[in-house]
Design brief:
Layout: H1 2-15, H2 24-39, H3 43-63, E1 75-82, E2 87-89, E3 92-100, E4 107-113, E5 124-133, H4 145-151, E6 156-160, E7 168-171, H5 177-192, H6 196-207, H7 215-223, H8 234-255, H9 264-282, H10 287-305, H11 311-323, H12 333-348, H13 353-376, E8 378-380, H14 383-408, H15 413-439, E9 444-446, H16 452-467, H17 471-486, E10 497-501, E11 509-513, E12 518-523, E13 526-527, E14 530-531, H18 532-543, E15 548-549, E16 551-553, H19 559-562, H20 565-571, E17 573-574, E18 577-578, E19 594-597, E20 600-606, E21 621-626, E22 629-633, H21 639-645, E23 654-656, H22 668-674, E24 678-681, H23 694-702, E25 706-709, H24 710-713, E26 716-720, E27 730-731, H25 732-735
Parallel strand pairs: 4-6, 12-16, 15-17, 16-18, 22-23, 23-24, 24-25
Antiparallel strand pairs: 1-3, 1-5, 2-3, 3-4, 5-6, 5-7, 8-9, 10-11, 10-26, 11-12, 13-14, 19-20, 20-21, 21-22, 26-27
Helix pairs in contact: 1-3, 1-11, 2-3, 5-6, 5-15, 6-15, 7-15, 8-9, 8-10, 8-14, 9-10, 10-11, 11-12, 12-13, 12-16, 13-14, 13-16, 14-15, 16-17, 18-20
């Protein structure tokens, strides 16, 4: 069974490379080919085609019924049910909302900023909403939120708009008992544990509520390799099933009757399965918990049917049970982290004792390197050592007490509260050392993200070396791993440069690379609890193998341009910072400053040292030139700033359109003076200010420029090669987009 399942997964994976889903005719042909292949006993070919077909059909079904992006920010005042536990995040509440009424029922992910009330799961509310289609910032090497939203079944996202109406509770909580229990447990932990960080971690461990865990602590978990412990995992559910089975066995010995002795093993097995599923749902029904619940159910069926099934076939059956109804789960990090770890556990656990544990830990660490690099952009160097201490403490101390506290919640709440408080006090001293380890420069290895096919091939090679431990497979696995670790993206050559304007919404973040140096021009906006630098700029740089910036230019102090500077400096080494003094720079950005990198010239054009300008008009402007190609990097100059620029403004082949295409910039004189062939706008999709303004776009086009916009086209790439401007810029939504990315 294991090989057909693997072929099915390969077929599903192939669907992730499609730019558009095939039509009905091609799908019908694939269905015929699949049936024919299975009929003539080409099981692997038929299974692969079937997997591809199922993924495409599921994709069509998932896309059907989504509101079009032309209705962005559409007003919708509707009644609905809150169907997930609201998660408190900095400045807002996030929750799932199922609309009710005469129209189609939609599952929305709703954000309520500065919520005036505290909604609870199961309650019915009437909310004034503004819809946002399932569209997000799109950058290479960065988490694809559009796929994540589609995978989790959201038709759109929305935010509560109190100006459009008054939110009101229409009915008390009704139904959704599991989610309500999760909410009760989360509230009890918050009440019992004084330290908010420890309370948030315990909520995640107990019932899968992780919204309150601070971002710095999440990063520390990733860098130290213990992220798999600080979440509901298969280990939790397996331990729970073992505890239930052991407790039932003791209970029967104490009060059982001889008359029930023959039937008791079967009854106990059924009770264990039911309890395991109940706990999996209480824990949030994440993929690892469902996988374990399915495995427990299958083991129970094998036991009751008195059959023999290999562990590998059992793992394959679990994968099949999860993937068949939801092929998009293959796009989640949890699927790969979970099933790769399980396969290693099945095949690498050769003996008990310290040597067996060390061998298992080494196998897990090696096998998960490609997955970790694809998901997190790197792998933890210290993870194996930290886990040597963390896993025993977690398995034999923290987890049993955690399960005991959960069991005591309905029967002895006071004892449960005392246990939560004790666990919180025990956890609190761990965060300091963990954060210190994570802060060490050698804790995490950030390498260029491998292509998906290379990551998959290297992971398959490591698994083969574990399943078939022969010298040939081990050498193959080592070669593939070294390829992943040593591969680097192609850099520009001498006299060439590459400009990438990232999709960061309303703001600006651009990266310019030469053959040996890297410069960032602005770092994007910041908001309460995060920044574009943390979520887009830094992951992009790491995916390109960039671990150090030679120069960061902050054009001016506005939050949409300088907001992410602190995150950037904390995450990457920055050699030099140019910009306004109020943001804490090494040197002011003043006209006349020049430097040369690998045959590429840089010159600051604005502002002049004696210019009586401030704010947007004083924003830094830089010209980048190589033989035969020039780029003009502008930020937010308005009329006065543009007038000052015109005194020494040279022509350029490409220009960053000032002020995101605002009507207060891009005056006719500037547009004519630049004479650009391409004009790049950094703005948000369906920007609330209507940027770029149609008249500004028309002005640049009338001057002969092709206008591209990050809000429409995703991240924009421009390459100057061998002294020429090349074919011009291209947007990532077209060049790298897939069928689930909204156009």
């Amino acid at each position: 069974m294991r090989w057909p399942v693997l072929a099915l997964l390969v077929g599903i994976s192939a669907s992730y490379w499609l730019r558009a889903l095939p039509g009905v005719g091609l799908l019908a042909l694939l269905a015929g080919l699949s049936v024919l292949s299975l009929t003539v006993r080409w099981r692997l070919v038929g299974s692969a085609i079937l997997g591809f077909l199922l993924a495409c059909l599921h994709g069509h079904f998932a896309l059907d019924g989504e509101p079009p992006c032309t209705e962005q920010r559409q007003r919708l005042e509707t009644s609905g049910r809150i169907v997930s536990v609201p998660e408190q995040r900095p400045g807002k509440l996030d929750f799932d909302f199922q609309t009710l009424g005469s129209g189609p029922s939609l599952k929305l992910r709703v954000a309520w900023y500065e919520a005036s009330e505290a909604p609870a799961v199961g309650e019915r509310w009437r909310l004034p909403l503004r819809l946002r289609c399932r569209r997000a910032h799109l950058n290479p090497g960065v988490f694809d939120r559009e796929l994540d939203l589609l995978r989790r079944g959201y038709a759109a996202t929305a935010y509560v708009a109190p100006r459009d109406g008054q939110p009101r509770r229409e009915a008390a909580a009704d139904g959704w008992p599991i989610q309500r229990m999760r909410e009760v447990v989360g509230a009890a932990i918050t009440e019992a544990v004084e330290a908010p960080d420890s309370a948030a971690v315990l909520q995640g461990l107990a019932v899968g509520l992780r919204g309150d865990i601070p971002r710095d602590l999440r990063e520390a978990f990733i860098k130290t390799g213990v992220a798999h412990l600080i979440a509901i995992s298969g280990l939790h559910v397996t331990a729970f099933a073992v505890v239930v089975a052991w407790s039932l066995k003791l209970a029967f010995r104490a009060v059982g009757s001889a008359r029930w002795a023959s039937a008791w093993p079967a009854c106990r097995t059924v009770l264990v399965v039911m309890a395991t599923w109940a706990y999996s749902l209480l824990a949030g029904a994440s993929l690892p918990t469902l996988r374990t619940a399915i495995a427990v159910s299958m083991v129970a069926l094998v036991y009751l049917g008195r059959r023999q099934v290999s562990a590998a076939d059992l793992v394959g059956a679990c994968a099949l049970a999860i993937i068949l109804p939801a092929p998009l789960e293959m796009g989640s990090a949890a699927f790969w982290l979970s099933f790769v770890a399980v396969l290693i556990l099945v095949f690498a656990w050769s003996s008990a004792g310290l040597w067996g544990f060390l061998k298992l830990q080494a196998s897990l660490s090696l096998a998960l390197i490609p997955v970790s690099m694809a998901v997190f952009g790197g792998y933890s160097r210290v993870g194996p050592l930290v886990n040597l201490a963390a896993i025993p403490v977690f398995s034999f101390l923290l987890l049993p007490l955690l399960l005991l506290a959960l069991a005591l919640m309905p029967v002895w709440p006071a004892a449960a509260q005392a246990l939560w408080a004790m666990l919180g006090r025990w956890l609190e001293p761990a965060w300091g050392p963990l954060s210190a380890i994570a802060a060490h420069p050698l804790a995490m290895s950030w390498l260029a993200a491998p292509p998906p096919w290379l990551a998959g091939l290297s992971m398959l090679g490591v698994l083969m070396a574990v399943v078939v431990p022969l010298p040939a497979t081990r050498w193959l696995a080592l070669a593939l791993l070294m390829t992943v670790l040593l591969q680097t993206p192609v850099r520009p050559g001498q006299g060439e440069f590459r400009l990438r304007v990232l999709d960061v919404g309303h703001g600006l973040a651009a990266v310019l690379e030469t053959s040996r140096r890297v410069m960032v021009f602005d770092v994007g906006p910041a908001w309460e609890g995060g920044s574009a630098a943390a979520y887009s700029l830094i992951p992009y740089l790491r995916s390109q193998g960039i671990r150090r910036l030679d120069l960061a230019v902050i054009s001016h102090a506005d939050r949409d341009h300088a907001g992410g500077l602190d995150d950037l400096v904390r995450s990457l080494a920055v050699g030099w910072i140019l910009g306004p003094e109020e943001v804490g720079v090494d040197e002011a950005c003043v006209a006349g400053r020049r430097w040369h990198w690998s045959g590429v010239e840089f010159e600051v054009l604005h502002p002049a040292a004696d210019a009586a300008l401030d704010g947007n008009d004083a924003s830094c402007a830089i010209r980048v030139t190589s033989a035969g190609c020039s780029v003009l990097l502008l930020a937010d100059p308005e009329r006065r700033g543009e007038a000052a620029l015109l005194r020494q403004l040279p022509r350029a082949d490409l220009v960053l359109v000032p002020h995101h295409g605002s009507a207060t910039s891009s005056g006719a004189a500037l547009v004519a003076a630049v004479g650009a062939r391409w004009a790049l706008v950094s703005s948000g999709f369906d920007d609330r200010w209507g940027l770029p303004k149609p008249e500004v776009v028309a002005r640049w086009r009338a001057a002969g420029a092709e206008v591209l916009d990050t809000g429409r086209d995703g991240a924009l790439l421009f390459e100057a090669r061998r002294g020429r401007c090349g074919a011009g810029p291209r947007g990532w939504r077209v060049a790298g987009g897939r069928w689930w990315n909204r156009q």
